[in-house]
Specification:
It is built from three helices and 13 strands. 16% of the residues lie in helices and 31% in strands. A five-stranded mixed β-sheet has the order 10-9-8-11-12, with helices on one face. The protein has a four-stranded antiparallel β-sheet with strand order 2-1-3-4. The protein is an alpha+beta fold and 205 residues long. It has two domains: 69 residues, Aminotransferase class 4, branched-chain amino acid transferase, N-terminal domain (D-amino Acid Aminotransferase, Chain A, domain 1, 2-Layer Sandwich), CATH 3.30.470.10; 117 residues, D-amino Acid Aminotransferase, Chain A, domain 2 (Alpha-Beta Barrel).
């Protein structure tokens, strides 16, 4: 990663209302503070043009660094995810912030074969999928991996509301859960739920 990495936020606008804005602002400003040593705060509410959000659900894609570089608006359609492939990733890979450069993430994603998405494993534990964070169901409780690569904004919201609970999920224990959900800023909790039986658990590197 170079000294001035670009970052990205994908913000959901539903019925012309910006979703989870405070969480997006917090994540962006935390990243800018650490990476660019700036305490000048961004507020995406000041730059998003609701009139450009034509459609029921629109993805507002903001590329930024120390300052905002570009803003795009795209109609959003949920992609079905019905199968997952387990992929082992480098132990030292750091994806703490939502970087614009997704080359390494795309590299791992390309190893999934015919599966729709992947379960990334780092140091023996579940982290994330390509599209978002995970929650695993057991005895009526949804558990989300304690140390994901990227702490998503919907994940933060769900933890705050008590709808999901942080827990380490070892690769060896995946099959002990009842179901999996994938979620992100654009995918609401419960929109994508996958059977444990739809996981390819063969070795991948």
């Amino acid at each position: 990663m170079d000294n001035h990495p670009l970052l990205i936020e994908s913000i959901c606008i539903k019925d012309q209302k910006i979703q989870l804005l405070d969480y997006h602002n917090q994540r962006a400003n935390d990243a800018r503070c650490e990476l660019f040593n700036t305490d000048e705060l961004l507020d995406f509410n000041n730059v998003i043009d609701i009139n450009e959000a034509k459609g029921t659900i629109v993805k507002c894609r903001i590329v930024y660094g120390e300052n905002i570089k570009s803003i795009e608006y795209q109609p959003y359609k949920l992609k079905p995810i019905d199968s997952l492939k387990i992929i082992e990733i480098d132990d030292d890979w750091d994806y703490k912030y939502k970087y614009f450069d997704r080359n390494k993430l795309n590299h791992y994603f390309s190893q999934r074969g015919t599966a729709d998405d992947m379960i990334m494993i780092q140091k023996g534990f579940v982290t994330d999928s390509y599209y978002g964070n995970f929650a695993f169901l057991k005895n009526g409780i949804w558990y989300t991996p304690e140390h994901p690569l990227l702490k998503g904004i919907r994940r933060a919201s769900l933890i705050e509301k008590g709808q999901i609970v942080e827990r380490q999920v070892p690769r060896a224990k995946i099959q002990s859960y009842e179901a999996i959900r994938i979620f992100n800023a654009m995918i609401e909790f419960g929109q994508i739920e996958i059977s444990i039986n739809s996981i390819d658990n063969s070795n991948s590197i």
